[in-house]
């Protein structure tokens, strides 16, 4: 199913279903009063965002570290590989939901209900921002402790009272801080929806991915296949696409091409590798064709997902739209330059300390948020389209010169 179909179903079917389920929840609560959260076997739900699976990792490790909880995760099967980057969740503890169509989704929900009971889930933490579907999943999981974001006194975003340990979502702090607040609520560090407990040192520390040497060798071999005359020149990565969930994040193809041409003309000791999924190969090739330079190569579909992190380890920097790869790279030392448009780095910048944003901060930005389910109808997209390639190119040139001096 496409994103708009999911949003429509979540609204028109989700609201009445959440209302009915909330009535059942209230009846059940009469006979089973709310107690202190039981985090012994905690399930995290984040279905649609691959990057969030990395951003939430410090919060998951905090819960495991401080309570000894066994961790589980539910995610759409197309996004499940993002959990392999840090392997915080064992494979047998991951439920992969099929969202290809309504029928598949329906049977996935039935399987999810059975899986939760088999795994004896005691606590569910809903990481989604006001999704009615995930609120319903929390309820049907059978877990007595259900933690998630609530609008509280804010207007709109109705999804019933299926979360019995609500946390007020704060739209003014980074999403990773909100995730830590959910975990602190699970540990009963505050007893009302307001996350009054401050972060402590180490709360947002992101683990580094462990890369086996054979994978590094495999990646180097594939670079050699893409560019046979490669003599270990610096590898620069370009991620020119963004997911269909928010296509407004895409910087123009001709802008990427202009920056690539500038770098290749000025530096003879670099090659540029454009990354992407197999389905993005044609889109990526259009960018490469604009440069007419053999040192700009198309690797869309070439590297497997488990080879991306090794690729980041052997590269010098990456220029990317605001999308999953920016967060995947945050578990490595790679310098990442991220183009932000309808989102803001203040809320969704990669963790790890190596990311640098290009962001205009227009009065309309960010135009997508939890309040509108991250949907915008802006067609001109000046927040991203007017980021000048001259600005981006100049910064990347300076970074490469700084590396030469160092």
Structure commentary:
- It is a single chain.
- This protein has helices spanning about 5-10, 15-30, 50-55, 55-65, 100-120, 130-140, 175-185, 215-225, 255-265, 280-290, 310-315, 325-330, 345-350, 380-385, 390-405; strands at about 40-45, 70-75, 95, 125, 145-150, 165-170, 235-240, 270-275, 295-300, 315-320, 335-340, 355-360.
- With about 400 residues, it is of the alpha/beta class.
- It is elongated, with a radius of gyration of 22 Å.
- It contains 15 helices and twelve strands.
- Helix 2 (about 15-30) runs parallel beside helix 6 (about 130-140), helix 4 (about 55-65) packs parallel to helix 7 and helix 9 (about 255-265) runs parallel beside helix 15.
- Strands 3-2-1-4-5-6 form a six-stranded parallel beta sheet, sandwiched between helices. Strands 9-8-7-10-11-12 form a six-stranded parallel beta sheet, covered by helices on one side.
Topology, please?
Elements lengths: L2 H10 L1 H18 L9 E5 L4 H6 L1 H11 L2 E7 L17 E4 L4 H18 L3 E4 L5 H9 L4 E6 L14 E4 L6 H12 L26 H14 L7 E6 L13 H14 L3 E6 L5 H11 L4 E3 L9 H6 L3 E5 L2 H5 L6 E5 L5 H4 L6 E4 L23 H4 L3 H17 L1
Parallel strand pairs: 1-2, 1-4, 2-3, 4-5, 5-6, 7-8, 7-10, 8-9, 10-11, 11-12
Helix pairs in contact: 2-6, 4-7, 9-10, 9-15
